Amino acid sequence: MNLLSNSKEVILSSSDSIPKEIIINAHVNEKKVYFEVIDFAGNIKDSIISRIYEPYFTTKEKGTGLGLYMCKMILSKYFNSNLKVENIEEKNIKGKKFYFSIKI
Predict the structure, then answer these.
(1) To 10 degrees, the CA torsion angle through 71, 58, 21, 88?
(2) 69-73 — which CB contacts under 8 Å span 24+ positions?
(3) What pTM does this model have?
(4) What is the pLDDT of residue 14?
């Protein structure tokens, strides 16, 4: 839910003519479910992308910096998974994709 909330906030605060959508993909094989949460509300700056999972690190005016940290910790501790992110670009529109997998 935190990933969706973050995407929603960035999309709604943007005055650009970006696509107002969040894409959620799930793929299943015999062993895992793979999830992707994608938005095209701009990239994460290269200078901070390695820090976004640090506790108390935030780019928001009123953020706590705990949302992505907690997502990563919960996935790691309870699901033996790893939350990853990458900047993407399609049709000259920049965005980001968070992804992780969970064993069935």
Answers:
(1) -90
(2) 70/2, 71/2, 71/3
(3) 0.89
(4) 78
Stated as kind and residue range, the H or E segment containing 6 is helix 2-13
Distances (CA, A) of 48 to 22, 52, 57: 22, 7, 9
71-91: pLDDT as tens digits: 999 999 999 999 999 999 998
- Please classify residue 68 by burial: count the beta carbons closer than 10 Å to its beta carbon, then call 0-12 exposed, 13-18 middle and 19+ buried: buried
Tokens for 36, please give them: 């992707």
Burial class (CB in 10 A: 0-12, 13-18, 19+), 12: exposed
Q: Which two tokens stand for residue 91?
A: 């049709």
Spatial strand order of the sheet with 32-39 comes to 22-28, 32-39, 93-103, 84-90
* Joined tokens for residue 78: 């309870």
**Which of 85, 82, 80, 83 lies closest to 103 in space, CA to CA?**
80
Q: What are phi and psi of 83, to 5 degrees?
A: -85, 125
Task: Judge whether residue 57 has pLDDT over 90.
Answer: yes
